[in-house]
Design brief:
- Helix content is about 0%, strand content about 50%.
- A hairpin with a 2-residue loop joins strand 7 (about 110-115) and strand 8 (about 120-130).
- The relative contact order is 0.22.
- By secondary structure, the chain is mostly beta strands.
- The chain is globular and about 45 Å long.
- The chain has a single domain, classed as Calycin beta-barrel core domain (Lipocalin, Beta Barrel), CATH 2.40.128.20.
Length: about 160
Amino acid sequence: MKRLIFGVLVVCVSFAGRMAAVPQSPAAGQPQGAPNFSGTWITTSPQSGVGQVLEIKQDWKAVSLTHDGGPAGHATVYPLDGSTLTSETATHGQKIPVRTRARWDGESLVLTMTWTIANVTTTARQTLVLDEKGQLRYNSTELVDGRAPKTTEATLVRR
């Protein structure tokens, strides 16, 4: 099953555990007063995505995005210290490495995920920002070798 907004299931990294709560301390590169996106978010637009759920857990070490695809959902973890995390996920009967990285761009959090299947590399860039109403603005651009970029935008509200 393909998720319209929150990425392609093929590349989502599933984790059985949850992120541990840790004391707040600024990560390298994290701006002072950076927004905390933690919470359960419900899609309000575009119409095709209305009702989809995105859960975000954020501490000073990492941010984890879990969307409601499949029985257990799919989580992807991004370190907030500027490093790249390499995880393995199974898809189509094979295990593939998935590299994730996060960086701050002002008050926006830019998440990057890269993977290669059958010699085709895909990079997904997601930007999260809170607007003046406290809504989450989500923008995702997927870049696949030799193809035009595919961009998706969504607006979400806290549950």
